[in-house]
Every structure is written in C-alpha cells, then in structure tokens.
UniProtKB/TrEMBL annotation:
Protein name per Swiss-Prot or TrEMBL: Chemotaxis protein
Occurrences of domain Methyl-accepting transducer (ranges): 359-595
Pfam families registered for this protein in UniProt: dCache_1, HAMP, MCPsignal
Any Gene Ontology biological process: signal transduction
Location of the T-SNARE coiled-coil homology domain: 546-608
CDD domains given in the database record: HAMP (cd06225), MCP_signal (cd11386), PDC1_MCP_like (cd12913), PDC2_MCP_like (cd12912)
Origin superkingdom: Bacteria
Parts of the chain that traverse the membrane: 282-303
Organism: Pseudoalteromonas piscicida
Locations listed in the record: Cell inner membrane
Record key words, sorted: Cell inner membrane, Cell membrane, Chemotaxis, Membrane, Methylation, Transducer, Transmembrane, Transmembrane helix
GO molecular function list: amino acid binding; transmembrane signaling receptor activity
GO cellular component, one term: plasma membrane
Keyword Cell inner membrane set for record: yes
Amino acid sequence: MYQPHWSAAVKFKHKVVSVSALVLLLALLVLSIIQYFSVQSAIKEQAEQSINEIIQGISNTVTAQMNGATELAALTTNLVASTDNLDAAFPILSQPQLTSSFLLIGYGEERTGKYVASDPNWDPGADWDPRKRPWYTDAKNAKELIITAPYADAVSNEIVVSIGVPVFKQNNFNGAIFYDVSLAKLGEMINSFNLLGAGYAFMVSKDGSTISHPDIKFNGKSSSAFLGDIGISNKLQYVEVKGEDKLVQFKAVDGLDWYLGVMLDESTVFSAISKLQRDATIFTFISVALAIVILSFVINLLLKPLDEINTAMAAIADGNADLTVRLNTEHEPEFAALAKNFNAFTASLQSLIANIQSLGHEVHNDAQQTSHVANQAKLSIQEQLNSIKVLDEATTHMSTTEHQVTQSAHEAAEAIKTTDQVAVQGEKIVAETTETIQALSDQISSAMTVVTELESSSTAIEQILSVINGIAEQTNLLALNAAIEAARAGESGRGFAVVADEVRSLAQRTQEATTEIRGMISQLQSGSESAVTVMKQSQHYVDKTVEKADQTRNALEDMRSAIRHIVELNSRIADMLNEQNDIVNNVNNSSSSIREISESVYSEAKSVDATMQSQVEKITSQEQLLEQFKV
C-alpha cells in the first residue's frame, strides 16, 4: 500500500512552522552550548583556585601548630640539659603548660638507662629501656630534633607522633627526651574547615597511613581504605570513588612528611553548571514553543483563503457536494485566479451530473421490473427441486438403512457362528479341566497317605531316641561311679578314671544329640499335621470344582441349541431384506435423474436472477452517487 512521505503527508503551513522552529532550536542550542562551556571553564578555574586556597590555609595551620610544639620541645630540652640529674628534670617536665600541650613527656639517660616521665603513674614495665626506643635512637643518630611517623597510642588509641630531642651536657650526648603529641585536636581542626558542604579534608603520611579523617575508623589505617588506588598529586584529580565522581587534591605540609588532602563531590562543586544547563534547556524549549504558537497564528491568518478553497473541494471529494456553491473571488491575485477556475469547473460538472441523473432513473425502473420476474421463476423452480430432494433423500436413506440392516444380519450370523464355536471349545476345555482336577484329587490323596506314613515313622524314631537317651543316662551314671572308684584307688586307678571321664563325656554328647533330634522330629510332626489338614481342605475344594465344571458343561450345551435356532431365523430375515433393497434401488435411480434435471434448470434461473440483482444494485449505487450532488 502507498505510504505518503513527509513532504506529502504534512500541511504546508505545518512545514513552515516546523522548519522555523527547528532553525530557532538549533540557534538556541548552539548559543547554550557556547555559554555552557564558557561558564564551565570559569567555574572549574574558580573551583581549583578555591581548593588551593583552602588546602594552603589548612596546611599553614598544621605547620604552625607543629612548629609551636617543636619549639616548646626544644626550649624544654634546653632547660633539662642544665639540670644535674633525672630527679631535677621531673619538675620541668611536669609543668602544667607542658602536660596540657603533650600527652606524655619522658627523659631517658644514656649512661644508666633510667628514665623519668611527666606522669608519675606511667609504668611501661620493668623491661622497658628508653635507649632501645625508635625516638631515642633516631634523635641520638640525628643529633637534632626528629619527629616520628604517626602511630596509634596503645592506651588512648589516638593517633600521635613523638618528638625526639637529644640532650647534650658539655657537648656530650647525655640522653634523649620524647614529647608525645596527640593529633586528635589537629584532626578536629582539619575537620572543622568549611568546604561548603561539598566534601571533607583529611591528612595522610608519606607511607600512606591515615593521620586524620572525619570517620575515625580510618585513622591509623592505610589511605587506600577510602581512596582506593588514587595516587598523591599536587594537581586536582577527577576520579571515581565507590561509583561517585569526586575531586581530589593533595598538598605537602611544610617541614613534615605529611600530605593534606581534600575530597569534594564533583556534582556539588559544579552544581552551578548543572543549574545553568537545566535553565538553558528550559529556556530553549519555552522559546521554541512560543515561536511555534506565534508562527502558527500568523500563517493561519495568511492562508485563510486557501482553506476556503480546500474546504469546498473536500466537500466535492467526500461525495456530499453542493455544485451550486461558488467561491469568493475578491482575494489576492493568486487566490482569486484559483477561485475563478474552481467556479468554472463546478458549473460544467453541475450540468453533466443533472443529465446523468435523469437517465439513471429510467434505467433503474426497467431493471427492477426484470429482476422481479426472474426472481419469481427462480422461487418456483426452487420449490420443485426441494420436493425432489426430499424424495431422493428419503429413498437414499431407506436404501442405506436396509443395506445396514442386511449387513448387520450377516454380521450377527457370523457372530452367532463364532459364539457356537467358542461354546464347543469351552465345553472341551471344561471336560479337560474336570479330568485335570480329578487327577489332582488323586495326587492329593496319595500325598496325604505319604504324610501320614511319615508321621508314623517320626513317632517310631522318637521312641527309639527315648531308648537311646535312657542308655546314655545309665552310661553316664556308670561312668560317674567308675570315676569315684578310680579316685578311691589312687595312682593305680588314674588310667581307669580317664577312660571313665571320656565315657561320661560321650554319654552327655549322646543325650544332647538325641535332644536335638527329638526337637527336629517334633517340628516334622507338626508340619506333617498341618500338611494333612491343608490337603484335606484342598480335597474338599477339588470335589466342589468338579461339580461346578459339570454344571458349566450342561449350560454350554443348552446355549448351543439356542444359537442354532437364532441362525435359522437370521437367514430368513436376510433374504427378505435383499428383496426389499432391490425395489428401493429402482425408486432411488428414478428420483436421482429427476433431481439432476431440476438442479440444472434451477441453476440457470438462479444465474439469471443473480445477474439482474447485480444490475439493479449497480444502478441503485449509481443513483445514490449522483444524488449526492446538489444541482
């Protein structure tokens, strides 16, 4: 099917509006894109500058606090160096100003290994030797103030660093002092900086250990736990952390192997860009929508005369045309010429349609009269054909029914013969069954005789075993007496005693054997009695079966006599049905010939009627089409 392309399916005024709106949309999009990238560049530059200023300010604060701690540690060390012994150093180390600035201060002596601390209750253990501690060895080797790497305090679990300062007396190394500085307050200060709600600041050491983080669970752990694989860089990095876009930048803390970092949410930092993009998009679409409305109004006003012509032509095309209507020719020259040509065309068409309508009415009347006569002839022939069909169907049905009855009679005769044969076979089988059951009865009687004899033999064996058991008991008593006499005889009767024991042992085994045999015989007798009982019951059932078989044979003989009588009656019925079937076939052949002739005549009449009906319908449709035009 034909599918109109865009230029044909869309109205001209809609094309003008669409193209104008598209041009305006492209212009606004280009302007918005240029503005977007310009503002984006300016905001990114401003954001990088602000981040650098924030990091620099935090770094300066950290440096100032650590410098204050190192200066206080150096001053305190000079005071301790002027004392004579450890006890004199304690008042200096335990001053409130120092204990409030440091978690703990300790002084270890090189010569003795003894130490003193600002907290008298501090007890590191009896084996603790300050000379083996990292802060001591590092300060001794460096011969100047050192700061250890951050670590978690074993008691408070705070992140701390130790300031180690060597103590020289008369230019000789006398020991070292450690000053534990808590970084918790420093972390609170870092976390307190306002990053405009876009992120947070943190601090890590050179080896990647976390010194300060808003989430204290990361303190003391590797920075990869929250930074991942992000490397330390002084440049602003655009990275992805846990599926979110982030801005990360680091700044080295002056004088320390520490790095201050900030992590900011990119969407928050550049929210102004997103807002600008959203506002520009909304403004663009609103402007295009307003332009479409204004252009549509102006173009509709300019093309109004063309709409009038289009409406008139559409009325004619739809079939409900008023050919008396004339268009107004007082418009612009282009539209006026089109209206004059349209008026001339409708005037010519009006005259032509009027003549065709007059001729159509006359043809329609003649066609209706001819169609009526053809329809009456068709109905008469159809009634005759229906009567013949009823007669033909009745004779056909009768012939079919008689044929089926004849066939059923033959099938019944065959079935009766088969039944007679089955009855003969059944009679033979019953006779054979009777003989087999009688033979089974004889075998059961013989088996009962054998089992009875077996029961008598078992009783005789049991009597013999009783005699053997009595002999064994007597032998056992004699062997016991012989053993007693041999014991009385002493050494001379020892051999006789051994023989007596063997005889007694054999007698006991004989008794045990006879006991087992008696038990088996008892089981055998019990089984024989059960077998005799079952066989007697079987003999009774066999007798009943023989009696039923005789009754069955007599019934089969009666059934064969009845079957022979039915066969004779069925043969007579089949002969009568064959004679009737010949008569019905003759009637059926005659009605079939008449029906074929009637069907041929009816088919011709029906064809004539259909042709006339089609002619009338076409003429009627033609009149209806012409009536749609007002002339």
